[in-house]
Amino acid sequence: MIPELKYDEKGLIPAIIQDAENGDVLMMAYMNSSSLQMTIETGYTHFWSRSRQKYWKKGESSGHLQEVKEMYYDCDADTLLIKVNQIGGIACHTGSRSCFFNKIER
Amino acid sequence: MIPELKYDEKGLIPAIIQDAENGDVLMMAYMNSSSLQMTIETGYTHFWSRSRQKYWKKGESSGHLQEVKEMYYDCDADTLLIKVNQIGGIACHTGSRSCFFNKIER
Question: Cβ of A103 and B71 within 8 Å?
Fold first, then answer.
């Protein structure tokens, strides 16, 4: 069952994707209510691509699908946290395991 | 050194806050370039509160400060991942350890 979520003015909600096994944060992308519905129904993550303005089943071309293990929303219902089994171990389009490979040095 | 980041049309960038020790995703909040600068300079997370429209040093009133351990930005430079030592162990204003305590049942 989908809870009442707070989508932004474009109808989007950010979804943090975390590796269910080791806890690595793999990426963040945006869902609208339909892509969230697709994600829940199929058990694989679906997003709304802001740059391409279309639905995007993660890994559809690369094969690096994300099998949903658990889904959460936060205390003010405006962010999702989705724990996944990252097929192929690679989440980033650069070929990196995680999208967060750039460190900010202080 | 602060890299070139892609802020949204409101000048904000989402920051995922992760427990540096156990990998739990604690919360997500938004920074602008000044709050990012404050975060880097002080070593404690600072955000821009969208609801209150003001700077917000996390834990300033509760004492639940977040000591920055590592900072990353993602492949397209529009999301931050900040690993912290969560002082007091509580990140959420509800008193919960993490803001992501609501599970979506499928």
Answer: yes
Distance from the Cα of residue A86 to its chain's centroid: 11
Selected for mutation to probe chain A from B28, B104, B106 (highest A CB count within 10 Å) is B104
Structure tokens at A26: 């793999």
Residue A1 pLDDT greater than 80, yes or no: no
| Whole-angstrom distance, CA of residue A16 vs CA of residue A8 | 16
Q: What is the mean pLDDT of residues B34-44?
A: 97
Both structure tokens of A105: 């040095």
The DSSP result for B64-78, as a single string, is: --EEEEEEEE-TTSS
| Phi, psi angles (nearest 5°) of residue B82 | -120, 120
Residue labelled with tokens 């604690």 = B26
> Dihedral through CA B25, CA A15, CA A28, CA A86, nearest 10?
80
pLDDT for the residue B2: 76
Please report where in the chains the tokens 């803001």 appear, as a residue: B99
Q: Do residues B32 and B48 lie in contact, with contact meaning Cβ atoms separated by under 8 Å?
A: yes
> Are A100 and B73 inside 8 Å of each other by CB?
yes
Binned at pLDDT 50, 70 and 90, residue A2 comes out as confident
Do A81 and B74 make contact, defined as CB atoms within 8 angstroms? no
Nearest CA in chain A to B96: A75
pTM score, whole prediction: 0.97
Nearest to B14 by CA among B3, B5, B1, B2: B5
